[in-house]
Write a structure and sequence with these properties.
With 160 residues, the protein is an alpha+beta fold. Helix content is 37%, strand content 10%.
Length: 160
């Protein structure tokens, strides 16, 4: 696998005044959104994932276009709320875990190699539009502008 000492995660910024219970519900909904979108074979921006290579598809016994990152289902079920602060939710994988390494391979296109071997499959993160809809679903009192202003950290997976 690729370098496993970096934690793959994304952030959902929250406006001042979102209570603790609502933060937990927003995090659960964010995770469900990422998992559902990924299982529907789409990346963060709604585009289809790059096809599997012929060799990989043959070795795993799957079609080249059946890319939904759920061969074992372990990676997607390992997405967690890593940290919940007053104004920020950190969502992703436990550093050093096998699933974190799998996420890195997909996000960078390295798949266990030191350099990219194929186009990445960017699945971990949310667009600003998704975040606004998500927060408004659980905290409708906040405006779109207030929610967007709270997005100070990367909403697409990073290791920083």
């Amino acid at each position: 696998m690729a370098v496993q000492n970096k934690q793959w995660h994304f952030n959902v910024g929250l406006p001042d005044g979102v209570d603790a219970d609502t933060r937990v519900r927003i995090a659960a909904d964010a995770i469900a959104t990422v998992v559902s979108r990924t299982k529907s074979k789409k990346n963060i921006w709604g585009r289809k994932f790059v096809r599997y290579t012929k060799a990989y598809a043959k070795r795993k016994g799957v079609g080249r276009t059946s890319v939904n990152l759920t061969l074992s289902n372990d990676m997607l079920t390992s997405i967690r709320l890593l940290n919940r602060r007053k104004n920020n939710l950190k969502i992703g994988f436990v550093a050093g875990s096998k699933e974190n390494a799998k996420a890195e391979g997909n996000m960078l296109g390295t798949y266990g190699k030191p350099t990219p071997v194929q186009s990445p499959r960017k699945f971990l993160g949310m667009t600003s539009k998704e975040i606004v809809a998500l927060v408004k679903r659980h905290a409708p009192e906040f405006t779109r502008s207030e929610i967007l202003d709270a997005q100070t950290n990367p909403t697409i997976a990073t290791t920083k």
